[in-house]
Amino acid sequence: MAMFNRILVANRGEIAVRVIRACQQLGIDTVAAVSEPDRDSLPARLATKSVCIGPARATESYLKAEALVAAALGTGCQAVHPGYGFLSERASFSRLCKESGLVFIGPSPEAIDSMGNKIAAVRIAQEVGVPRVPGSGRLETANDARRVAAEIGYPVLLKAAAGGGGRGMRIVRSESEIASAMESAAAEAGAAFGDTALYVEKFIERARHIEIQILGDSHGNIVHLGERDCSTQRRHQKLIEEAPSPVIDEELRNRLGTAAIKLARRVNYQGAGTVEFVFDSDSRNFYFLEMNTRIQVEHPVTEMVTGRDLVVEQIRIAAGEPLSFKQSDITLIGHSIECRINAEDATRNFMPRPGVLTTWQPASGDGVRIDSHCYPGYKVPPYYDSLLGKLIVHGANRLDATRRMIEALSHFKVEGAPTTIPFHLQVLGHDDFKAARVTTRWVEETLLGTL
Amino acid sequence: MEISQQDLHQILKIVDETENLAEVQITLGDLRLHVRRFAQPDERREAMTQSVAEVPMTRRPPRGGESAAAATPPAPPTKLEVPPGMHGIRAPMLGTFYRAPSPGEKPFVEVGQRVKADDTIAVIEVMKLFNSISAGVDGVVDRIVANDATLVEYGEVLVLVKAD
Q: What ipTM was assigned to the predicted interfaces of this complex?
């Protein structure tokens, strides 16, 4: 297959800008599919052309598969890049693209299907010998949940089968809480994913979130690009990510990488993907959590330490080209940290607050990267997520990277909307972050608890 | 006599290809077409845009040639201002705009035709699904803005109706 001439960018915000930049680097024209309030957005201006696909409401624009396919066909695109979120992990969209003669820049519908259902994914992980957190399959009744919980021991975590992002998730500390937790988790899962199925897992008290970036091509090559540590989360929403992880050594990295590749190979994975693990800080065991079949928000930290452009690789893979490097070519250099700059007020329960960015003066300097769609005067629309951009730094080691990040955050001036910048400065200045003692519940239990 | 967008492009093409022709005026009923051309390609394009603007049927100047049109992506649709007293029927969705129910059939409406609010004035196809577009107001069709069988964006003005 020849390289594409024109790609439809089926997303918005910073990731749309990121995809357009990658296309520019490859000499590919871009069509930005935008909703009405995004007509004048940065992606619309940077793309070769933009097409308005619908009104503000995502279900009538960025989630409307037929409109996106019609826009791609009507503007002469050969491929569609879904970014993250929206339609990026809908097997039906990947399938619709294929049936319409478009290349979906991502894995096959079959691979998305097998990894998209969390219960099915866990079963596949077990089949290839990748450990999972002790737990159940699909639960039918509260009695089933009680039986499994008694076996694996409390506390347990109830999770949505179709889940992600912490929705439909409940920590249950005793048998008496199970029935009501199941009820509310199922309701939340139904509202968020249209599927009320739940499963239960052992709850790990001192957990870190470790994920492995993989890339697979259509020639059977699959490599991993090391791990990202995304333990600084609030309510399962990642806030700070870094690579490499301060708690993973070379031996463990190889084991995690090998496990991720095994899993990916099993589903003939093509494109960029991320295999997420829970790492138990006490036992140093790791357990398969889920696989994300798309580019991740936090992909830049991997790019910074490996020197590889993951979005360019995604496009090249989709065009049928083999990976441009081998596993042995991957070496991790230095340390990278990413902070998500959200239009949220951390002092008010991280409430999202849209507004007009009267000042937008990003940090700059050696080893500093900004991925953003914002500019001075940009009106942050209230319809979509609150991510304004990502501040990424690269340093010689973790201490150096942390110092650079504190410096960059201090010089990042935003007015017109509250941001998570002050929050990030608190985290980076905290002894627990410096000593790598942060677990996935640290923000809620320790940091916010002491403020 | 009715003149279609295609006819108009044909006329402009003939003018464009005829050497030593500086100016053409055509009057057909209430339609007046006035085309001037100059030696400089840029000026010529501009002049044609202006003259075309006098014609109530088109919104885009013809392209320089087939090869140029094929090499560059189509220009974004003109952001059309709806003149006062007019009602702009906008695309409620992105898709392919069709003036007729199927190829070869008579268009739903023509310029000068009286329409009722519920009348279908066009269809928009999204992945083989045809959506009827109704006039929304009672009035007289003043101008068909969108090109037949082309992609229209969400919110794009398709047809202008002089409302009663």
A: 0.74
